[in-house]
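As described in the Methods, two query proteins were run sequentially through the folding procedure within a single session, without resetting any intermediate state between them. The first query and its resulting structure tokens are shown here.
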Amino acid sequence: MTIARSLLLFALAAVAEIGGAWLVWQGVREQRGLLWIAAGVVALGAYGFVAAFQPDANFGRVLAAYGGVFIAGSLLWGVLADGFRPDRWDLIGAGVCLAGVALIMYAPRG
């Protein structure tokens, strides 16, 4: 249950952070306006709270592992929101990062 909770929190954090950054990007780069930017700032703030609920108490470990989730999630967001098509190197790199997430967060510790 702890791993499932952790994975859910990582997914929620990714949606908040990547979605927030995307909203700011849309507001600034695509000139969609201040409401998009403001929504992005709120989502980015929510990301910080979601990350704080990870079961592991070690900030460095959680944020280091989240980096891999962010990488894979960013590629997926690009596919879903912008029609981006990752190449095999993108996919291999994301796989390596997710393997790192698993090692950092869920490897047995003695």
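Immediately afterward, the second query was submitted; its sequence and tokens are:
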Amino acid sequence: MKTRVEETIGRHDKGYNCAQAVACTYCDLVGVDEETMFKLTEALGLGMGGMEGTCGAITGACVLAGMKNSTGNLEKPNSKGASYKLSRQIVEEFKNQNGATQCRELKGVDTGKVLRACPDCIRDAARIAESVLFADEEK
């Protein structure tokens, strides 16, 4: 698959939050239109709205994991374990690369030491999503 990493930055520059920038860039690969994905991920930016939660770029990638992997079986949910495994891989790779997953920590709110700026978090999450979720996709 041709990389779309820089497309995520274009969306962020337009005002998309970090989750939207990642999730919307790949939404066509998981069968969701961009407006729906934009709405689904709107409250996930800024560490889920207040810098206290997981980085929005990571949560956007994890939304993609669920959309790509879920069987959608409402009567007998049977794909959670595999989806959790993909999400865990995304989160662990991001944490290994950046030293944290919480927005507040990445931005150095309490320490004054920025570990990673938003555009770099977005690029990292997009690269990880591409390798974990879309490595076998056609161009």
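The chain has a mean pLDDT of 95. We note this only descriptively and draw no conclusion about the first query from it.
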